Amino acid sequence: MSLSCDCGYDDPAWFYEPQDVAPLNTKRSRKCCSCGERVAVGDDAMAFIRYRYPAPDSVAERIYGEGGEEPLVPWYLCDRCAGLYESLDGLGFCNLLGQDVRELCREYAEMQRDAGVFRGQMIINKEPS
Length: 129
Fold this sequence. Notes:
The chain is an alpha+beta fold. It is built from 3 helices and 8 strands. It has one domain. Strands 1, 2, 5 and 6 form a 4-stranded antiparallel β-sheet that branches. A two-stranded antiparallel sheet has the order 3-4. It starts with 14 loop residues before the first strand and ends in a 7-residue tail after the last strand.
């Protein structure tokens, strides 16, 4: 995948709710779902509470009810990736979770260079008069 502004939510396999960056409060370390680095207990991280709608006529549907939410294992971003995620999300990009946000930032920088934007300033080609 790559950067996308298409935030279509046509029956996604699962949903998530990002939490604020906070010290990791779990019994064990976790792996960043973006860069794969280890996040130690107490290190700053961003948790994503994940869930899905149970499949029809499944055991999960009997447990959580029709239209209920079946909890999934949370995913985590290390502090560095969380900052990059928030920046790209703030720019309106979608479907970032599970991708390497470092690579997505490189892609964004390349898009900006190709568009003529350099260090926050647009380079305008003026024809000589």
